[in-house]
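Ligand: zinc ion. Inputs:
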Amino acid sequence: MHRNIRRLLVVGAHGDDETLGAGGTIARLADEGAVVSLCILTNDDGSRSATGAGVTDRTAAIELAAKTLGVERVRISEFGDNRLDTVSHLELNRVVEREVRDFEPDTILTTSMCDLSTDHALVSRAARVAGRPGKGSVQEVRTFEIRSATDVGEASGLPVAFRPNCWQRLDETHLDRKLEALRAYGKELEPWPNPRSERGVRALAEYRGSQISAGLAEAFEIVRVVH
Ligand SMILES: [Zn+2]
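Predicted complex:
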């Protein structure tokens, strides 16, 4: 089914969401000719360390990661990190709706409502609003999982859980690009056994791959698809 994706919009709260959640898939689809646009809603360092080696600010880190993955178009909003709950739904929805109107994606990938991060849940809602049925070009909306956000949400008694029903097979080269993109975010890569270590990221890809008898994969939950 992924071969039908021609215009992919990835919507995240923070620079690194796209890479942690769907970096391998973005690399694969870009290789296969899809045009990929990235929309990140926050851009400050309110609660996180800024950047990786050779990158001077968060914007540069996002752009470097995007380039590594094959993303052609990057849009970064300036809302505050961990403060999206202070932004009106109307304002948040408008930003993502504008991206959908301008870029005309057939598919949206976004964060999960199941994440403990309030920013992630709010962005997921805004992406669903922008991609709702009967509005524009969007035929499919999927959510992705982010280690130490989605799994922590599940382990914290939230009433919803991430239930993958879609797997994207990856080759080693796609995982390599995901890890290289993560390095743009530098200090957020932790040593093993942290879930956001390189080995932790590989372990999840191997686990998701083994669920479908493939070497490596990323898992998604399809919100809506029109064939
Ligand atoms: Zn995030």
